[in-house]
Each structure stands twice: as structure tokens, then as C-alpha cells.
Design a protein that fits this description.
By secondary structure, the protein is an alpha+beta fold. Helices cover about 25% and strands about 35% of the residues. It has a single domain, classed as Thiol Ester Dehydrase, Chain A (Roll), CATH 3.10.129.10. Strands 1-2-4-5-6-3 form a 6-stranded antiparallel sheet.
């Protein structure tokens, strides 16, 4: 049996937290995309990147590889869900003010087409469906290199005001 390995390196996500604490969501996501702020460690582990971000729109890209495979020789569905979730998180973050954070209340995913290394670059595009003062609904569509819809996901997030929610108030 041939053994293979993958080396993963990342930067401490808490080291520079002070540098981005006052940024609005879009400014923060742009800094991540431009490499001025380190990506979350899971992004390095899985190997995806933020390719585009605007207010209410985000694109994550990944090159599927053998290290992403399940026992059937296709990319593990849970890994695809992580990429969908990242696109959803980026698009939600892109519309938040500096004083806000968010938590996911629900996430759902539907798979339409298997993904493998032969699928080409996977593009996952997130958009805002509804933006309220406390609830944001977003969706993401995952396309392969041939333009086929591979999966879609939706999420509902609750906006957290760091001052108010930190005090335990709803």
C-alpha cells in the first residue's frame, strides 16, 4: 500500500485579532482575501481560498484532490459542506458592521453531482437571501469546472451585537 502525506501549515488565528477587531465585515473579508489577515486554520487544512468578496456576495474556490476523497473515490460530502459553509459565512460576514458577529442557527445542504479531482476547480458562490436586524438568510451554489451544479446550501444566522449580546441580552 502506497503511503502519501500532506503537510499543512497555518498562522495563529488569535495573534492578530486586535488588528481586525474594529473592522466592518466587508473590510475584514477583503483583508483576508488580500492576505493581510491570516485565513482560519481550517481553510489551510482543506485547501480552499476566498476568491472574491463584495457586500452580499462571496466566492470560495477549491481544487479537489485525492486527499479529499472518501472510500468511493469522490470528495467527501462533509468536506463539500465545509466549503459551502465557508462561502455562507463569508457572505454573511460581508454585510456586518464592525460591532457585530454572528452564529449559525441552521445549515442545510443538497448534493446533485459527485466531485473528484477530474471535476476541475470548484467554485462556491454565496449570496444574501434576506437581511434583517437579527436574522440573515444566505445561500450558496457549488459549481464544478464544467459549469455543473454540484451542491447548494442555505443557512440562517443570528446577528450578535458584541456589546448587547455579551451582556446576555437578547
Amino acid at each position: 500500500m502506497t503511503k502519501k502525506q500532506r503537510l499543512v501549515t497555518w498562522e495563529d488565528p488569535f495573534e492578530e485579532a486586535h488588528a481586525w477587531s474594529g473592522m466592518g465585515g466587508l473590510e475584514y473579508m477583503q483583508a483576508v482575501m488580500e492576505g493581510r489577515i491570516a485565513v482560519p486554520p481550517v481553510w489551510s487544512l482543506i485547501g480552499f481560498r476566498l476568491a472574491q468578496v463584495d457586500a452580499g456576495h462571496a466566492v470560495i474556490e477549491i481544487e479537489p484532490a485525492e486527499c479529499h476523497y472518501n472510500r468511493f473515490g469522490i470528495v467527501q460530502g462533509g468536506l463539500l459542506c465545509v466549503v459551502l459553509d465557508a462561502a455562507l459565512g463569508c457572505v454573511v460576514h460581508s454585510v456586518l458592521p464592525a460591532s457585530a458577529g454572528f452564529v449559525s442557527l441552521e445549515l442545510n445542504a443538497v448534493y446533485f453531482h459527485p466531485v473528484s479531482a477530474s471535476s476541475g476547480r470548484i467554485t462556491c458562490e454565496g449570496t444574501i437571501v434576506h437581511r434583517g436586524s437579527r436574522i440573515i438568510v444566505a445561500e450558496a451554489r457549488m459549481m464544478d469546472g464544467q459549469g455543473r451544479l454540484c451542491a447548494r446550501a442555505g443557512c440562517t444566522c443570528m446577528v450578535l451585537d458584541q456589546g448587547r449580546d455579551a451582556a446576555g441580552q437578547d
